[in-house]
Design a protein that fits this description.
Layout lengths: L1 H6 L5 H9 L18 H14 L6 E5 L6 H11 L3 E4 L12 H15 L5 E5 L2 H8 L3 E3 L2 E3 L4 H9 L4 E5 L7 H5 L3 E4 L8 H11 L6 H10 L3 H14 L3 H16 L16 E2 L3 H11 L5 E6 L5 H11 L4 E5 H4 L6 H16 L2 E5 L14 H16 L4 E5 L7 H4 L4 E6 L3 H12 L15 H14 L5 H16 L11
Parallel strand pairs: 1-6, 1-7, 2-3, 3-6, 9-12, 9-13, 10-11, 11-12
Antiparallel strand pairs: 4-5, 8-13
Amino acid sequence: SILKTLSASHDKPDDIYTQILGRPLRAELDWDDFSHLGGDHNRLLSFLNKSRQQGVRGINILLWGSSGAGKTAFCKTLAKELSCNLYAVGETDDDGNEPDRQKRLDAMQLAQGLLQYQDNSLLMFDEMDNMAEISNFSVFRGDKLLLPSKVLPNRLFENNPVPTFWIVNDVLSLEESTIRRMSLVLEIKNPPKSSLPNAWNRIIDEHRLNLPDHNMAELMNLEASPAVLDNAVRFAQINGQGTDDILFAVRGVIKAVKGSIKPMTATSYCSDLVNADMNLNALGARLKKSGQRQFSLCLYGNPGTGKTEYVRQLADQLGMEVLVKRASDLLDTKIGETEQRIAAAFQEAQAKESFLIFDEADSLLGERRHAQHSWEISQVNEMLTWMESHPLPFACTTNLMERLDKASLRRFTFKVEFSALTQAQNSLAFKQFFGIQAPKEIGTFSNLTPGDFAVVQKKAAIMDTLNQPEELIQMLKVESSVKKHDANPIGFAIN
């Protein structure tokens, strides 16, 4: 088939490349969609620009990360940013079937030879881990045992004229000798949820669709990747049923991948339902703009006011995963064990580059003057030591601010009090949680929190009274009354 292609007449050389290698891959995303890589993508862009200008050979980039993180999409977008053609090699044989190991390597050699004088070309070799799996098998030919040679692939890494991306899900499946031959190894992390709406809006605009806000909210809940949404939009356009088709297609993929679909929760963070003594929207915007990562938060106030949910939202805004540690995860009866678990929590957050949250922090940072045992003092000392040196954001939430050790308060960059909802927020919460306008009686409450509305919503759903405002008001009165008569609150509450 190659001889037939070469002997045929062509208007331009690119036609030959297209016949043999297929069409260059098209980028669906923009460069800014990969800003969550923390500048690593710009470093790689600079490296490839300079290596191409200098005519350096043997440029190989290993991209690894979980399935669906966007490794292939990143290659396409990087090629677009470099104004290069990107070709995928070794994906099918001449008959359109799945190629074996040798045919994949042959395809790579052919592509390198064809494009070696084209300085605007890049190659992509996907599912490299499959190559590693195949190389572990021995082959019998007659009575001889043959092992696949590593000489050929290793030579490809050392002197290839065309810069090549090698993609793998599990980097541990590769041998160290292979990894050492790479010019650069880069982990492609899953994008934060906060970056998804921009990508979704661009896809929707490209297809000239109009997706209502409540459908966008469901997509946010499903955490659909741009590639999944793009395929779902194509399905909807072909089937002609509009936004319902888009959500139907997205749900199908998410359920198949994750095993279930996370339900919409009424307790998700909503900035309009937070009553704090600091402008949290402005704080989040400032922290994101500054790029500062070494800061801490002490969030205190009544249960259910949204402290932990705010930290989750802030972490998402900063492009970070959260790591939550509750007092019950860390406290242990064995001497020294609690201190070890505290240290391990900070170390885990550093290794994962996560936003660390200590829930029920009053159990870990209790006032040392009131300590009755030496281990109570040593665990606070351990916390204080790590708080001083931790290079990443962390937050402590507590319902009992007065119990915190005074020395710990000096170590928090920001201290924010969360209070009960205002009367205006009560009306808004009533509409958001129950879907109906609030009656005037809602103005009589002064101690309700989003957590109270969530409890009543769950109770009303069971009792089938979600559309009965009088019953809802009575249920809210019960929640309000319980708090008024609770003279001895305890620290184990869900925020």
